[in-house]
Amino acid sequence: MNWDGLDASILGPACLAGLIVLATHVPLGTRVLARGIIFIDLAIAQIAALGVILAQYVGMDEHGFGVQVAAAAAALLGATLLSATDKRWPEYQEPLIGTLFVLAATGGILLLANNPHGGEHLKDLLVGQILWVNPAQLWTAALASAVLIAVIAWRGSRLGGLFFYAVFALAITVSVQLIGVYLVFTSLIVPALATAGMQGRSRLVAAYLIGVFGYVSGLALSAVLDLPSGAMIVWTLAACGVLAQILPAVRRSHPAHAGEHAPGGVQDPGA
Q1: pTM for this one?
Q2: How far apart are CA 188 and CA 192, in angstroms?
Q3: Distance (Å, whole) CA 192 – CA 150
């Protein structure tokens, strides 16, 4: 074990990146789960990643403003398309989301096919480089997230249709270059899934705590064990979501445990 890896100068900014991502992904995750479009974030994140790859393919600086614009434009275009299909073919929305994800993923592979560093670029976009975020990225992401949180709070239950997809796309664009596609999906879905059945502010608090513990423990373990941080955080987030079921307030409200609270401890046949 490498205890020297617990360096606050490296882990601190990475923790901040995680908190910034959770700030928007926790409330959006509950909405995605309620809508039943679980894989929309994977699709939008992959489309944003495709925008990054395309921008680099035409010669833009990978850390330049143009890449950010390309990622946002690609994500918004994908969001607009999904909003249109949601209205026209709502019963086929989930398979359409999956198809769009596969097209974006394979599009990125095709664009990187002749790039000698293509495999490394693809890995960075999927798994992320959360340990190497810089202050400029954090400030930009924090400002964008603050604006998006204000919009989510302002619209409340009226956050729907194209407006929802646009806000969602911009939130994903902010996060995907900080933490990667896999961690974007996990941050959005796991806290929301672990607290399904809870209501109001208590659900948000529980979901945020699961996310925070998942990021902190994942970063610490990855540093001590010298393992990839993004992949480790995915596992610790999932573990925290499972462990949260031990808490009575979470367990009682979760649909997965509903039968345990039926009279006499008998499984509810409708569960």
Answers
A1: 0.82
A2: 7
A3: 20
Question: Closest Cα partner for 51 from 41, 62, 40?
Answer: 62
- Amino acid in the structure at residue 266: V
Closest by CA position to 191, among listed 167, 169, 176, 207: 207
Residues facing residue 198 across a β-bridge? 196
Residue in the structure block whose two tokens are 């409330």: 27
Q: How many whole angstroms separate alpha carbon 7 and alpha carbon 153? A: 36
Beta bridge partners of 196: 198
Written as tens digits, the pLDDT of the chain (271 aa) is: 766 667 788 899 999 999 999 999 999 999 888 887 778 888 898 999 899 889 888 888 766 678 888 989 999 999 899 889 888 888 888 889 899 999 999 999 999 888 887 787 778 787 878 888 888 889 989 999 999 999 988 887 787 778 888 898 899 888 887 888 899 999 999 999 999 888 888 899 999 999 999 999 999 999 999 998 999 999 999 999 999 988 887 777 777 666 665 555 444 433 3
Q: How far is CA 263 from CA 196, 197, 253, 255, 258, in A?
A: 22, 19, 15, 16, 11
